[in-house]
Fold this sequence. Notes:
Blueprint: H1 2-92, H2 102-114, H3 120-146, H4 150-180, E1 187-188, E2 194-200, E3 205-211, E4 221-224, E5 229-232, H5 235-238, E6 242-249, E7 262-275, E8 281-284, E9 295-298, E10 310-311, E11 329-334, E12 348-353, E13 362-364, E14 374-377, E15 383-389, E16 394-400, E17 409-416, E18 419-425, E19 431-436, E20 441-445, H6 461-470, H7 479-485, H8 487-491, H9 496-507, E21 513-517, E22 528-535, E23 552-559, E24 561-566, E25 576-578, E26 581-583, H10 603-610, H11 613-620, H12 624-636
Helix pairs in contact: 3-4, 3-6, 9-12
Amino acid sequence: KAAKKAEEAAKRAEEERLAAIVEQERLERERQELEEEQKRLAEEKKVWLETESKRLEDEKVAAEPFLALRAQTLLVEEQKKRDQEEWESFMACTHLPDVRKEADLSSYIALWQEERESELQKALSQAQEAINVTVALEGLVAQSMAVKDEDATAKYRAYITQLHKLIVDKTDFATANMLEHVDQYTTKDPSGQLGCQLSVPSEQLKFGIWVNIAKNLRLKSIDYPDLTLSTDIPRPIILQTVAVRMIHYRKDPYSPFELGDYLTVGGVLVIEVLEVPERPRTVKAHVPDIKDPGLWSMIRITDQTGTVVRQAYPQVDPVTGIIQQAPPMQVQYTLPADILLPGGAKLRVGRWNASLADGKGGWDEDGILNEEASLEAREDGSRVLTFQTMYLTALAVLQPRWACFPYEHWVLQPTAPNRAMLSVVLAGDMVVKFEVGSGLCRLREPSDEALRHLRSQWLPAMQLLQTLRHHGLNLLPCDDDAAKVSETMEANLKDRALEEATCLGISVLAPAFALSHSPANPGLGKSEVVCRVATCMDYQAPPIKRDSDKWRSILFRDHELRYCSMLDPSAEKATHGKEGFLVDDEGNNHAPPTVGLETRCFPLSIVRDRADEATVLRCEESSPSFTESVRVMLDAMRLFSFVSDAKPAPPAEGGEGG
C-alpha cells in the first residue's frame, strides 16, 4: 500500500509538473503574442502618425493662400472701420483726446495732472469727462482682448487705472477747498437753522456732501432727492464737526478689471466721514490812513491744506488699535435703471477692504447686514436698495463671477448674408440672444427694460460682452470659475489652445451651417471637443431643433496630433461623454478610434469633402469680419468648456446600479 501511495503521489507530481510547463508555455506564448500585437499597434500608430502628419501639413500648405487672403481682407475691413471712427471723432469736435492716439492721451493726462481746479462744480465736470475717456479706453481693452494682445490690454488698463486715481484725487482736492471755505456754502433753512449740504448729479458720477455745522441732535438722516441717495446720521457723527460725503461712481474705480470672486453691479457708492478744517477767522483790518479798511478772512495753512482727511467709521482707538463700538448706518439709494438683477436671488452688498489679497484689496461682506437688506420695486419702475453697514467706505452690490454659469445649451444659425443669431440658455432657463454681424454684434434678448439701449446698439463682439458685464450679465468666464461651478466642470475644462483652435476653425462654417452644443462634449475631457453642425442655406428656415436628424458632429482632438474629423452619424445617438467615449443611453460607445482615423486640419476641409459647391462657396466668400465676430463670441464665452453636463455618465460596471 505504501508503495502504491508513493506511486500515485509521484504521478500527481509529474502531472502537476507537466501542467506547470504547459501553463508556462501558454503564458509565454500569450506574452509573445501581446508583445507582437503591441509592436504591430505601435508600428501601425507610427505609420498613421507619419501619414496623417504629412496629410495635415500638406493641407496647411494648400490652405495658406486662402487663409492669407482672408487675413488681408480682415485687415482691410478693420481699417475701413477705424477710418470711419476717426472721421466721426473728428466731426464731433470734442476737446477730449482720441484714445487711439497715445500722444493725445498722454498729453491729456499730463495736463490734467498739473491742473489744480478748486471749484467743486468744475472739478466734477472734469471728472465726468475723464470717466468718458475711460469708457473709450475700455473699447480698446476689449479690442486687445479679442485678439489676445496682452501687452496692449495691460497698457490701456494702466491708463484707465491712472485716470481713476486722478478722478479721486481731483475730487478730493475740490472737496478739501470747499471744506476750507465752508462758510461760503452755508445756508439757512426756513426756520433759520444753519446748514451746509450740496449735491451735484451727473451721468457717471453723483456727488453729495453734508457738513455738520449746527450739530442738530434731532437730525436723523441726510437725503439727496436729486441723487436718489440717503443715509442715517448716527450719534457719534452728529456730535462732531465733520462732513459726510457720498459719491456714486457708475464705473467701478476699485476693481474695474475683476478682483477676487465678485463683480460689482450698478457701480460703487463711497460714503466717507471727512474732517472739517478750522474755519476761517474774520478780523478787522488795520491799515493806516484808511477810515474803513474792511474785514479780512484768515485761514490757517497746514500740511493738510488741499487734502481731505478721512475718519474711520467705526473709529479705531489710536493706542490699543481696537475698533470702537458704533451703531450701523442705514443706507438707501436707487440702483441704476440699466442693470439686470438675478430674479429671485438675494442681493449681496459688500464693502471694499483694502487689507485683503496681500494689500491689493477686495470686496468683503463682513460688517454688512445683508440679511436685513431689501430691494423695493416702485411704481415708477425704480428699484430702491436699503441696507445697513457697520463701515463707511466704498460699498457695492456684489455678484459672484460664476452666477450665469454653467450654460445649459447654445446654438448659432445663419439668418442673412454675414449675419447669424446666437442663442444661449443660461442656468435658470434665461435665454440670451445675440445678432452677430460683420465686425459688430448686438443684443436681442433678454427683453428686460434695463437692457433696452443695448438691443439697438451695435458693438464689437468683445466690447458687447464687456458692456453686458457692466450691466450685470457676466458671460466672460475664466478658468477659476469652473471649480466654483462643479468639480466635473473643473476636471473636464478644455485645453485652452485646443478650445481656441476649435473656435477659429468652426467659425468659418458659420455662413452656411448652424453650430451647436453637443451633449457628449462636456464629459469628454480636456483633449477633445465635439461641436454639432447642420447645413443651413435657407436664411428663412426656422431654428433647427436639438433632436433634428440634420445634425452631424465634428470631433477636435489633441492626442499627439491636433486634428478634426467628421463623426459617423451613429455618434448623434450619444447622450454624454466620458473620458474620451461617446456613450448612448444603452452604454454603447460611438467614439472613433484614436489610430487609423482619416484626419483634417480645418473643418472647412471636411466640408469640402462632403458638402455641395454652393455651400462651400458661401463659406469661402463670406466676410472675414463676420467669421471673426463668431470666433470671438464662441471663444470669449467659452461655449465649449462652460456648458453643463446635463446627463451624467452612468456608474461603472460593478458600481451602484451596475
